[in-house]
Amino acid sequence: MFVLLSGLVLFGVGAGFTYQYNRIRRNGLMIEGQVIRLDERCSDDDCTYRPVVEFRAQDGQIFTHTSSSSTNPPAFDVGETVHMYYMQENPHEAR
Known about the structure:
By secondary structure, the protein is an alpha+beta fold. The protein has one helix at residues 2-27, and strands spanning 29-42, 47-56, 62-66, 81-87, 90-94.
């Protein structure tokens, strides 16, 4: 029973992330950003890295976005240009 409940919870979380990503991709503006650093997250036996991306919104303001996912090895290099989406009415909402 515990395994079934855990599976349902994880499915719900995944569905929520997928919905948010698709909503931003469908309704947001696509821009280029630049990876300005990698945030290191370490546990007892491993470290992973999240890209922090700086981008310029359509109105000229500069924002940073930290990815919600981390990988090892890092998926991006510092200085790399990446494509991303952000919501024009709320540039802090980006993917």
